[in-house]
Amino acid sequence: MILASIFESGVSIQFYMILASILFGIGVLGVMLRRNAIILLMCIELMLNAVNLLLVAFSTYFGTGDAQVFVFFIMVVAAAEATVGLSIIVLLFRNNRSVDIGLFNKLKG
Amino acid sequence: MSNLEIITFALGGLTIGSALMVILSQHPVRSVMYLILTFFMISANYILMNAQFIAIVNIIVYAGAIMVLLLFVLMLLNLSKDNEPKSTLSMKLAAILAGGSLMTVLVAAVKDAVVAPITEVSANQQGLVESLGQLLFTKYVLPFEISSILFISAMVGAVLLAKREKQIID
């Protein structure tokens, strides 16, 4: 079953633009507010998803599929980023016995 | 206000609420659970926007793979509420001020943006697997192949990083 596009039935694109902006803002807020490195990674995922949401909204709005392929590639990169990021965090935890980002300042010299 | 509009607005509110709970809940495992809920809400948004393929891939990749990985690492490191690092009050205030002003500026800039109106009322089938696959394997086949190299390098990197180094004690 194919639903009719919701933009033809009254919902404006501005709603999704505002929703994606708020989600992105929540992600930025989380990165600055929390000190747990794993939560920081989660907030980055949240920001990526906000961008994905906006891309899909515009893809539906203009009726082209290209943006959805782009969202697919963003998901690919996000999966690769999560694996490498998590293994770096495991490595740091092994050295410091903590995931507090305040302690990860060994490169400061 | 039509039924669809009510559903859309309620879904948007739930998405924002669960995303807020991700950064506000103190226990990391609870945070992961709320993030999974957020991803399901975003998937529901995709389905409303007729992007079925992206919705399913979002659930499989994010809620399925990445979140399980995060949860696994969280359990492996044995983090709990007691050893959760706390930030000071001044840092919290600065973060809320900076993040809140960024959000305000973004919303204010986006609110009055002029977007070109919909030109044609199409059948809107480009979110289905058939048309997306057509696009992915013709127009975007080179990035698709390059992403496999990215995956291999990420895999090698993860294995190399997480491998326990040999103790140099003689």
Question: Can you describe this structure?
Answer:
The complex is a heterodimer of chains A (109) and B (170). Chain A is mostly helical and 109 residues long. Chain A has one domain: Helix Hairpins. Chain A has helices spanning 13-33, 37-62, 66-96. Chain B is mainly α. Chain B is extended. Helices cover 72% and strands 0% of the residues of chain B. The model of chain B has no long low-confidence stretch (mean pLDDT 87). Chain B has two domains: 1-82, NADH-ubiquinone/plastoquinone oxidoreductase chain 6, subunit NuoJ (Four Helix Bundle (Hemerythrin (Met), subunit A)), CATH 1.20.120; 123-164. The chains are: A mainly alpha (109), B mainly alpha (170). At the A-B interface, helix 1, helix 2 and helix 3 of A face helix 1, helix 2, helix 3, helix 4 and helix 5 of B.
Topology:
The complex is a heterodimer of chains A (109) and B (170).
Chain A: H1 13-33, H2 37-62, H3 66-96
Helix pairs in contact in A: 1-2, 2-3
Chain B: H1 3-24, H2 28-48, H3 52-76, H4 89-111, H5 129-138, H6 141-162
Helix content of chain A: over 70%
Please identify the top-level CATH class of the largest domain in chain B.
Mainly Alpha
Count the E strands of chain A.
0
CATH fold-level label of the largest domain in chain B: Four Helix Bundle (Hemerythrin (Met), subunit A)
Terminal residue distance of chain A: 60 Å
What is the number of strand segments of chain B? 0
Unreliable runs of chain B, pLDDT <50, ≥5 residues?
none
**Average pLDDT, all residues of chain A:** 87
What are the key terms here?
heterodimer, A: Helix Hairpins, 3 helices, 0% strand, B: 170 residues, mainly alpha, Four Helix Bundle (Hemerythrin (Met), subunit A), 2 domains
